[in-house]
Structure formats: structure tokens, C-alpha cells
Amino acid sequence: MENSIDAGASSINVRLKDAGKTYIQVVDDGHGMTENDARLCFERHATSKISEANDLFAIRTMGFRGEALASIAAISEVTLKTRSAKEEVGTQLRVSGSRVLSQEPESCPVGTNLVIRNLFFNVPARRKFLKSEQTELRHVIHEFNHVAMAYPEIEFQLIHNNTQVFHLPAANLKQRISGIFGKNSHQNLIPLESETTIVTIRGFIGKAEHAKKTYGEQYLFVNNRFMKHPYFHKAIMQAYEHILPADYYPSYFLFFEVKPDHIDINIHPTKTEIKFEDERSIWQILSAAVKEAIGKHNLSPSLDFDNEGVIDIPVLGRNQEVRPPGETINPRYNPFEQDEQQSTFQGWKNKPVDPNWQQLYQPNRNEDLTPGLGFDEKSDAQEQNGQKYMQLKNKYVLAPVKSGLMVIDQRRAHERILYEKNMESIRQNASVSQHTLFPETIELNAADYELCKELMDDITLLGFDIRDFGNNSVVVNSIPAGTQIQNCRMILEELLEQYKNMKSQLSIDQYERLARSAATAAAIPYGRQLDQKEMRELVDQLFGCSDPNHTPSGRKILNIINLEEIEKYLA
Ligand code: ADP
Ligand code: MG
Which one has a higher pLDDT value, 70 or 484? Predict the structure, then answer.
């Protein structure tokens, strides 16, 4: 695809079979190659893009090392058909494992048609490392999106096993983003533009109120090449800091233009990690630009003329209320609500709660410290009626224990509980789920959709009933007991996101990863108020866990401020 762009194509078609394992075809209407170029392009360092040393520092094309085609031809069977406008007839060239099998004249349109068959046919060890079809397709879609996003003026098509995944007509950037992420995404975009001598930044950022809990619609480009840049990502996140709840990510699609000799794109083999000469100044410029764009949007919601025919003119009433960004939650939802005398954690039944869990937190014999104050010796019954737990900042549950004051992180505690429940469900193959009243159809982005299909069977083990609905959509019929029905979409998206994040930790097996992802996705958030009963249930469930002290990823769930410390405060 990059080569096609370099060749000035206006339309690029990609066709795959079996996620590319058996067949990859890229057809373009670019300037094509002459007979001689066609032969040369499979030679290593056969790039046509550097003719003198100086060019090296002024590269604006996508490729410049002349290694892609040579590498591909070394590990697959390639058929190239190409014709340059200068020539009447084109050339067909067949190469297999670096060996040229044939080269002959061929009548074909101007442009290039490259077919790659049987990837790694001659490197079986490497072929084995190809992932499942869904995973590989997901990677392809990611790469495809990176390229398609950067060149909205070019028409792209992606077809997989005879099904059209994308057809993106030539458009402007805003329309291209909608083409990739769904029709509604244009409503979410705030334009951003900033021009300085160091860098020009343009593109779109997402509205805070549309931010998602899942990471995935964040795109940075430099000189029209996709890049990963954690430092700039942070600059953007910081600019949103005060208007986004924690763990929410705004989408952004930002294009940086810098002088080519002010960046080094070779620090990473896939050329996605890029070093800038003026990183700090760019941080400042970026941060200011994002804040300004957000500010402008808040003052005057923009008219949207890009969206043929549909112009949203928001009607602003005199007393229009400014809605703070936030999650849409059902304030009456109660994660601990008892359903006909059953615990909400219905799947949670593997381990009886130790009624004496508090004994675990016995002090080291400090009666003499508190002579005569035996309040924590009082009976359980009495505690259950009186106020025993307290919630701090809707985030921590505080409970007096013999040795002092126990502080429990509510979200982490619930994460541990759900995780153990999930592991148990998987182990016993018996999950408990709750039906959604109306099955919810959820449209995912193409990559998440592929991942979801891949995980579908395993997700079922956790109590989800999810069906493939085609067209990047799934239908959710039920979700695990104890999770919030109103938030099907968020839970599913978060689950997929967590799963992706954990992918790099190879030591974690598939089920473990899933159990953890689902737990993180469904755990009660900070900011939710809990009543006595809920807090008691949370604490009791926590102490039924095999490790009440740590989350599955090893973070501390609770701690005790012991009496000596408290006495010191008051001394
Ligand atoms: P690079 O892109 O780094 O130059 P490649 O191995 O990808 O190296 O391609 C080698 C050369 O083959 C290119 O420099 C270009 O001259 C030619 N080429 C490859 N693909 C195309 C195409 N689709 N249309 C025209 N020329 C192409
Ligand atoms: Mg190339």
C-alpha cells in the first residue's frame, strides 16, 4: 500500500484470503514500473527513491530502503503485473523464494498489481508463528487503517475472503474517519490546527463527552506516516485532564508536519516509533493546541458542513445547561442488589466466606494500649445493625478492626472478587449470567470486532452470551451475573481493551487473561456510593477470596492504619 501511494495511485484495492496467509493482492492505478524496473524492484536496496546522498535527509516518501519487496519475495510466491504509462505493454514477473521464475510481456492497465501467495511457504518454522486468522486480520486492519487515514484523498478497498471489509471513497479527513469508525463518529470531532515554525499540527480531537473507556481511536501521524508516540499521547491526555473522568480516552487523529531532517524514523524497525529533535517544544505546542480546540468547541459548537446535506445546528436555549462530561450511569443501579434473596455475585459460590476473617487482622496483642476499650469485641449481630463501614470519597471502604482502621480500595476489591468468580466459572464451565431485557446490538470497530469473534467461545465461559451479527456488530443477549446490565457496551469494550493490553504479558495464559480483563471491565468504579449492606457484602466477599490483599495484577487492595499510628497522630 505504501508503495502504491509512492507511485501516485488514486485508488488502491487490497484483497486477502485467510487473513493474508494464502493470498494478498494489492492493485493500484499508480505510475507503474517499466520492464526493467519490474525486474529490479525485487533486488535488495533496489529503491528508486534515493538518487543522491542528500536525498537521504529529505525523504518524504513512505519507503526508502528498498527492502520490502525483496523481503516479501524471499518468503512467498509473488506475481507482479505492472505497466508504466510510458510503455504500450506491461510486464508479468513471477518470483518464488527470491528466484525469478519468469518474466514476460503482459497486457495490463497502467499501474501495479502485486499478488503474494503462501506467505512463509519456505520457512515453515516462521509460518507456524502466524496467529489465528482473526488475529492476523486484526493486524491487517490496523495497518490498513493507518494508511487509509493518512490519505483520505485516495480511494481504498479491503476485501477479505470475498467479503468487503472497507470501501472508502476519496474524501476529506473527517469523512474518512467516519468511513473507518462509523457514520456517527463525525459528530464527535473537534477540528484542531496549529502552525508554528517547528511543527504544523492539524486534524481532529474527540469531544470529552464522547471519550471511551477503551483505547483504540488514537492516531498520530508525522509527515503522513503513522507513529506511536507515548510522550505526545501524554501531552494530549494532560490537556483533557480536568474534563475527563479517570481511565477515559478521548479519540484523536492528529497529523504533524515537520522538516524531514528533524525526525529520526529509523530507531524502530517498523518505523512507528519516531524521535523528534524538538520534542519538548512540540509538547508545549501540542498541549496548547488541544486545550485551545477544546475551549473553542465548548464556546461554540461547530457547524458541520462536511457531512453532505446534514448540518447539525445545535439549538442552544437561553438557559442551556452546560453538561459536564461523564459516564452515563443509572444512578439507581445497585451492583449489589439482591435478586430474590440471591447474592448478586451468583456465580460466586465456590468458597464459603470465613465468618472470622477479622481474626486474620488480629493485632499483635495490644490490649494494654487500650485498657478497658473492648469495643471491637462486640458481637457481629450488633455491628451489622449499627454503622460499621464507612465510605471515603466514594472510593475507599473503611472498617474498624481490632488492630486499627482497615482501608479497602472498593474497585480493586471488586476486581479480585470478580476475577476469582471468573476463574471458577471457567474452571467449572458453569457460569451464571443475567439476560438483558432487550438484546443489545453493539457496533465495534473492525479490529475489535475481529478480536471479539476470536474470543467469543471463551467469553461465553464467563457468562456472556454474545452473537456475531455481521457488519462489525455483535448482539449481547446476556452478561455475567453481578455486572451492570446498563453498561453492556462499556463492559464489552473495556474487556476487549484490557485483553489487548495484557496481550504483551506472555506469561499469562488465555483464560487467566480473559478472567482478569472481564474483572477489570466490570468492577465497580470509583465514585460509586455504596450503602452499609453493599459495603458489608463487598468486604465479606473479599475475605472469601484466596488472596484478599492483592488484585490479580498484584496491586494492594487494603491496608490497616494501626492504633499506634492513630495514637501518634493525636499525640
Ligand atoms: P522502497 O519502497 O523502500 O523503495 P520497496 O522494496 O518497497 O522499497 O520497493 C522497491 C521499488 O519498487 C520502489 O522504490 C519502487 O521503485 C518500485 N515499486 C514498488 N511497488 C511499486 C508500485 N506499486 N508502483 C510503482 N513502483 C513500485
Ligand atoms: Mg516500499
Answer: 70
Distance between CA atoms of residues 8 and 151, nearest Å: 11
Amino acid identity of residue 92, one-letter, is Q
Residue 361 falls inside a structural domain = no
Does ligand 1 lie within 6 Å of residue 59's CB atom? no
Alpha-carbon distance 190 to 174, whole Å? 10
Instruction: Report every protein residue that has its C-beta within 5 angstroms of ion ligand 2.
Output: 3, 63, 68
Domain count within the chain: 3
Task: Specify the pLDDT at position 337.
Answer: 42
CA of residue 9 to ligand 1 center, whole Å: 12
**112 C-alpha vs ligand 1 centroid, how far in Å?**
10
Structural domain boundaries enclosing 227: 174-296
| Global model pTM greater than 0.70 | no
Q: CA of 428: how far to CAs of 62, 347, 419, 425, 541, in Å?
A: 52, 11, 14, 5, 19
CATH number at residue 493: 3.30.1370.100
pLDDT digits (tens, 9 = 90+) for 522-538: 888 888 889 888 898 89
Percent of the chain beyond pLDDT 70? 77
Q: Report CA(67)–ligand 2 centroid distance (Å).
A: 7
> How far, in Å, CA of 561 to CA of 549, rounded?
15
Res 438: pLDDT:
67
C-alpha cell, 91: 510486464
Instruction: Mark whether 286 and 395 lie in a shared domain.
Output: no
Say yes or no: 390 and 248 in one domain. no
